[in-house]
Design a protein that fits this description.
By secondary structure, the protein is mainly alpha-helical. Helices cover 53% and strands 8% of the residues.
Length: 320
């Protein structure tokens, strides 16, 4: 089968003129310059174009890595197939197979395909986006378990002050930071009585000014100033996000906590503690850096229900 190289840039006027000339000459394998094994009109070609587009290159590196991992699994199974042949029933079948084992992964792939096919419409691969008419996978998300007061007490009892595990735990609990921000935290972020840092979420950069609680200040003051970050490996190097998560999960297991007690569960515990202290959703968001108030209102509503229930029983039966 004859291959015909096409000029760049991809989908430019010169590209399409050469493409149509090549196709008029008979069925040929048409490739973009630098992509000798990519057949035009296939998902291989579409995904390659997506990786080069601003829709992908402007994403955070960590997000790019996540999206690429999801798309490459799809590409491995369907890369050689023509984009124009994809129908809603095919999308339903692909997602249904994944959902039978991993429902969350099916919805994540649906999001990636929805964006990919919207670009396919824009770039002339197809006229309609078949993913829009595909079924949304319904399931009850479990999420990361929130650390309970019992978990917190047990962890502290096992990991005494002065251990790196205890320091990492207290940083997460007193700041409510995401693991990606917690592993970067260091003395350079301490300004007087505040931790001043920036966090990035959904493309927005937010500056956080987190007051340092007295108990947390004592822990920080007892920490040696040997490294750029507070959370390090045994060799003094900064920990990666994934390695940090596994490290905390293992530390929790060693402390006798239930399975899957993760850094994100400590972040949830920080939000819960703030809500139980009477903080409003906006006050909590100013500390944790959340952008979606609905995520925080979940904690506030739960606390309010507990208070209302206590008030109701008191009114009905009197104070204990």
């Amino acid at each position: 089968m004859l291959q015909v190289p096409l000029p760049g840039p991809l989908f430019s006027e010169a590209f399409w003129i050469a493409y149509h000339k090549a196709m008029e000459g008979g069925t040929k394998t048409v490739v973009d310059v630098g992509s000798s094994r990519t057949v035009a009109g296939t998902f291989d070609a579409l995904i390659t174009a997506y990786y080069k587009s601003s829709a992908f290159t402007t994403l955070a590196k960590s997000t790019q890595s996540t999206y690429r991992n999801q798309l490459e699994k799809f590409r491995e199974a369907h890369g050689t197939k023509p984009v124009a042949a994809l129908k809603p029933k095919h999308v339903d079948a692909i997602l249904g197979e994944i959902a039978s084992k991993f429902p969350p992964q099916a919805n994540k792939l649906r999001k990636r395909l929805l964006k990919l096919m919207s670009l396919a419409v824009k770039w002339g691969y197809v006229t309609e986006n078949p993913v829009q008419n595909a079924e949304h996978i319904k399931y009850k998300a479990k999420g990361y378990p929130t650390w309970t007061d019992g978990d917190i007490e047990k962890f502290r009892r096992h990991w005494q002050e002065g251990t790196p595990q205890r320091l990492a735990f207290e940083i997460l609990l007193y700041t409510g930071l995401r693991r990606s921000d917690a592993v970067k935290l260091g003395w350079q972020h301490i300004q007087g009585d505040y931790i001043v840092a920036t966090t990035k979420k959904s493309g927005d950069v937010v500056e956080l000014n987190i007051p340092i609680h007295g108990s947390f200040r004592k822990i920080l003051d007892s920490t040696e100033r040997k490294h750029l970050t507070f959370i390090t490996t045994a060799y003094g190097a900064a920990r990666s996000e994934k390695a940090f998560t596994n490290w905390i999960i293992e530390a929790a297991r060693e402390a006798g906590l239930p399975p899957h007690r993760s850094p994100h569960g400590i972040r949830k515990a920080a939000c819960r503690t703030l809500a139980e202290s009477g903080c409003t959703a906006l006050e909590i968001m100013s500390i944790t850096g959340h952008r979606n108030i609905k995520e925080i209102e979940t904690y506030c509503v739960a606390v309010n229900k507990k208070r209302l229930a206590h008030s109701a029983v008191t009114k009905a039966h009197g104070a204990a």
